[in-house]
Amino acid sequence: MSEPQISEQGALVLFSGGQDSTACLAWALERYARVETVGFDYGQRHAVELEARRAVRRRIAEAFPAWAARLGPDHELDLTAFGAIGETALTADRAIEVTERGLPSTFVPGRNLVFLTYAAALADRRGLKALVGGMCETDYSGYPDCRRDTLDAMQSALNLGMEQDFRIETPLMRLTKAQTWALAKALGGEALVAITVEDSHTCYLGDRTPHDWGKGCGACPACELRARGWAEWTAAGQAALAS
Amino acid sequence: MSEPQISEQGALVLFSGGQDSTACLAWALERYARVETVGFDYGQRHAVELEARRAVRRRIAEAFPAWAARLGPDHELDLTAFGAIGETALTADRAIEVTERGLPSTFVPGRNLVFLTYAAALADRRGLKALVGGMCETDYSGYPDCRRDTLDAMQSALNLGMEQDFRIETPLMRLTKAQTWALAKALGGEALVAITVEDSHTCYLGDRTPHDWGKGCGACPACELRARGWAEWTAAGQAALAS
C-alpha cells in the first residue's frame, strides 16, 4: 500500500471492538491526525464488547506510537431504548411478513441509521468530519442499512439536517472477510493481526474460547464468517490485499 | 376544506402533546383508518409533555367518536442518551463556532433525524406507512432538520435502509402559527381549538399558567410564537385557512 496523506481533519470511528471496526480504526489512524471512537450499548453483549474496545485501543496505542499520538477519547452512547423497539408488539400482518423474510421477531431495522445519526451529533460537537464505519455489502447482503446507496442518502440527510459536511467512509464496503484480514496486515503487520485475533470480539454469544482466527463460540454466524475469512486468507498464504 | 379520502393504510404521528402535533394528530385521524402516536423522552419537560399527550388524546377520543375508532396506542421512547450528547465536551474550536452561531452549548443537532429513525423502526413493527410530523419551515428557519429537503433525504435513507415505503408527511410545513390555529378549527371546530388551548403544551419552561391562547409562561420563545399566532388568527376573525 502506498503511504496515504495524513489529513488534518478528524475522524470518528464507529467502534464495536470487532474485527471489522478494528481494521477501520487502524485505517483511520493511518489517515487522520485526530481519531476518536464511539461505541453503542444497545443491550447485547455489552460487557464483552466494552472490554474488547478497551483492550484493542490499549494494545494499538502500545504497539504503534505514531497512531497513539493521534488516538483521542472513546465515547459510549446508550441505545438500549432503540433495541427495546424490538419488544414492541408486532401487528398480526407484520408478524407473518417477518416470519416469511426469516428475520427474528425482535430484529429492529435501521440500526446503522441510528448509529450514524448519534455519531454525527457527537462528531458535530467534537469537530470531527469523517464518520468511519465497517459496513460491508460483500458478506452482509441481508442488511439493507449497510449498503452504500443507503449510506449516501443518510450522508445527505445528516449534512442537510445538521448544516455539516460529514463524509461517511466505509473502507470495508467491497472487501471479503479474507481481504479484511489482509487489510489489517497491510496497515499494521503481524502486530495488528495478533491484536485482532487476541482482543477483538465478534461472536454473537459473547463466548471467548480461543481459536487461531480469534475468540468465540465457533458456531454462530459471526464466528463462521470470521473463521471462513481467516481460512481463505491463510490458504492464500496470507496474501496482500488484492487491489 | 373538502372531505379527504380515508386511507386504509396506517399512520404514526410524532406527538409531543404541543399545539403543532395536536393539529397533526387531528389531520392524520381525518385521513387514516389507523393512527398511533409516539412521544420521545429526551430529558426535557418530560412529565408535563407526557400529561399533555395523555390529556389531548383522551379529550379528542371523547369529543370525536369517528376519530376515537381510528386512534390506536401511544408509544413512548427514551431518548435521554441522545440528549446527553449535549453534555459531551465541545472542542475549543467548536465552542467558538457554537457561540458565533448563537446556539446554546448543550444544543444537540439533528434531533428530528433521530425522532424519525426511531419512529420508522417502530412503524415498521406496527405496519404503519405514514410518519406524520409537525416540522415547519415557516417559523423555525433556524432548525435545518425541519426543512423539507432534509426530510426528503431522510425519507430516502429510511426507505433504502429498512426496505420500506414510508412517507414523511408534514402538514404544517408551509403554515404560519395563525394558519395552524385555522387548521385545527377546520379539522375539529371549536372543540379542537378548546382542547388545543386547554390541554396541549408548548412552553419551554413547563409552566401551565392559563392564557386565552393556551397555558405557559407567556415569555419563552415557544409561548411568544404561540401567542402571536393566536393574536393574528383572532385579529383576522378566526378566518379559515387561506389555501
Short description:
The structure is a homodimer of 243-residue chains. By secondary structure, the first copy, chain A, is α/β, with parallel strands linked by helices.
Polypeptide structure, described:
Two copies of one chain form a homodimer. The longest helix of chain A is centred in the C-terminal third of the chain and has 23 residues, at 177-199. The model of chain A has no long low-confidence stretch (mean pLDDT 90). By secondary structure, chain A is an alpha/beta fold. Helix content of chain A is 49%, strand content 15%. In chain A, strands 3-2-1-4-5 form a five-stranded parallel sheet, sandwiched between helices. In chain A, strands 6-7 form a two-stranded antiparallel ribbon. In chain A, β6 (210-211) and β7 (214-215) form a beta hairpin. Chain A has a domain at 8-176: Rossmann fold, CATH 3.40.50.620. At the A-B interface, β3, α4, α6 and α7 of A face β3, α4, α6 and α7 of B.
Total of helices of chain A: 9
CATH topology of the domain at 8-176 in chain A: Rossmann fold
Q: Strand portion of chain A, in percent?
A: 5-15%
Assembly form of the protein: homodimer
The residue fraction in helices of chain A comes out at: 40-55%
